[in-house]
Design a protein that fits this description.
cytoplasm, single chain, cytoskeleton, Mitotic-spindle organizing protein 1, MZT1, 3 helices
Length: 79
């Protein structure tokens, strides 16, 4: 395969990946999931590599809950 074709294929694959992330980000926003594109990309990669989506969802929810609690503690200390 000539180099030009492989470069075009790589660019097309990257463009498709960006589109997928954009769609998932829109869904995340509509559902108020508050996940940025980088986090969504990581989650998608984990699922593609065999991580159970329900287990991943539970972990993400728990991490967000803990982060919210930490923010509240820091805010209450600064007042």
């Amino acid at each position: 395969m000539p180099e030009g074709e492989s470069k075009q294929d790589k660019q097309a694959t990257q463009a498709q990946a960006r589109q997928v992330i954009d769609v998932f980000h829109e869904i995340s926003t509509l559902l108020n999931a508050d996940l940025d594109r980088q986090t969504l990309s990581i989650c998608i990669s984990l699922i593609e590599n065999g991580v159970n989506p329900e287990a991943l969802s539970s972990v993400v929810k728990e991490l967000k809950r803990e982060a919210d609690e930490t923010i509240k503690v820091h805010e209450s200390r600064s007042q």
